[in-house]
Write a structure and sequence with these properties.
111 residues; mainly alpha; 4 helices; 81% helix
Length: 111
Amino acid sequence: MKKVYYIIYTLFLAFILLNCFCNFSFGAYPKLVTTITSAFETVETWLLRIATPAAAVAVGSGVFMKKFSFGDEERIRTGKRIIRGSLFSYGFILCIDLILSAIQLLVGENE
């Protein structure tokens, strides 16, 4: 019974994936898709504008926490975690443009 379930599930996923990544569209670029795309670009722009100073403040507070820990190991570890986490998050936010471009390429909007 499990084998039948897995075969049906695999065929269903294959059908869905093969139909999702087609290179043509019957609706070309409807107004709703264009509006959603421009909304995502606007959100991305605002996210980058807000994330840059926030990352700078987080890294600065982590550096100051390390600098003024006065030998307290827990504060040094906390400062390092803050710096590492903020740089990782900011790097991910900078990669959002690459991720959105890859999604647009897969969907086929850049034809």
